[in-house]
């Protein structure tokens, strides 16, 4: 079955306490204190948005970037990962990593791991398209913790990813102009923090339905300055949705209006559709949106501005604004 990949719903503020009433309010959405989310296997979990995070674990996480694991796939090892380690130059030099080709870095979301479908689908799409390095970031130790702890640990995870990328370049050469960072749900904010750690000089960052609840006012979220070109694809921005649902990047795509997706009957399906659509565009580069003047045009399917392809693997992509693209119900989602 498709992996259920969900965002972390938790506090956006690192220095302030959570509200004490029974509602947790963001800019556009209101969330009950207790919310049910399924895990990687579809089993339901009750989330308490007022839970106390594991401060000891978060302190260790901030001190130790080795909590992340990095798995390399190339056309020479497209199914069997090679493990890369920060501060271990031999693990880079003795691998199939090729500093002369582009590098794609993929970050999963909450309760996910290396083998989750989002990682496999994006990996296969890129390797099927061209000769690249694909590095899957597994931050499983934090991602498998409770929601509040995972949420608060995102910036440290992202900074560690940025430090790892810097170590790779310092070890075997290369250039940030050849890096594309991709994150799903909470992983969108992970790669945003990684790009920030690298001074916003990464060629491209793509956020796939970036995690929404309580990220509205969070200055640690993915933003337009985290890379040279930053794109977000919003697929589950409804009131009950898991995505942020509002523009946050340099270019924001809202497939089918960005709230619900053709063929989906649940928010889980809508949320996951972001990475399914993205992987399809890497292979086909076929979904083209039109620029919108405002979110009303997005909702009313009344966007008539310049066209721009959504997703794809173009490291030199450019653009600005909000866009709507219409898609079909099934892969490869031609409209």
UniProtKB/TrEMBL annotation:
It is found in: Secreted. SUPFAM superfamilies: alpha/beta-Hydrolases. Keywords: Secreted, Signal. The keyword Secreted applies. It comes from the Eukaryota. Belongs to the AB hydrolase superfamily. Lipase family. Residues 66-304 form the Lipase domain. This is Lipase domain-containing protein. Residues 1-17 form the signal peptide. InterPro entries: AB_hydrolase_fold (IPR029058), Lipase (IPR013818), Lipase_N (IPR033906), TAG_lipase (IPR000734).
